[in-house]
Amino acid sequence: MYNLCYRFTGRSHEAEDLTQEVFLRVYRTLASYRSAHGGFATWMTSVTRNLLIDHYRRTKKDRATSSLDDEMSHVEERPAPGRRPDQLAVASELSGQVQSALQKLSPDLREAVILRDLQGLDYREIQDVLGVPEGTVKSRINRGRIELARMLGEMGVRPQ
Questions:
Q1: Which residues contact 16 (CB under 8 A, 6 or more apart)?
Q2: In terms of Cα–Cα distance, which of 125, 145, 131 is closest to 50?
Q3: What residues make up the domain containing 117?
Q4: Which pLDDT score is estimated for 20?
């Protein structure tokens, strides 16, 4: 849940607060969960998505007036044992560029790409979370990937 919140907001402190709020909502609404409507993980992702939508709407005005410096986010990188400093620098730079490009995607495309490519949900699970037809899910993922690739290309990031 933290990863989903972080990928959507781009800020670790916001993601921590939102993750805590997700678990509070889950605790308060646990009685509404019905296994016949999907798995528990899918239901939790739906709760998280709804919270993120609410958060997005609440902070929309704040984002419109914030400075560009505040909008620059960095993905936290924790070095793995055995990785060389140059590898860490390249990975950190790439991660920052991907996060920056993700933030520029429209919310519909961003959430579809995050759910599929970063959270690893299958199309059916994403369909359940977003409440849209499978064709719409596939279209959003495809358009999001294309737009993300275009933005990364403009940043000078090339596939290897």
A1: 2
A2: 131
A3: 86-160
A4: 93
Contact 147/109 with Cβ under 8 angstroms?
A: yes
- pLDDT tens digit sequence for 47-79: 888 888 888 878 776 555 454 444 445 445 555
Reduced 3-state DSSP string for 64-101:
HHCCHHHHCCCCCCCCCCCCCHHHHHHHHHHHHHHHHH
Pair 95, 35 in one domain = no
**What six digits make up the tokens of 20?**
């805590």
Q: Global pTM?
A: 0.55
**In a shared domain, residues 31 and 93:** no
Q: Is residue 81 in a domain? A: no
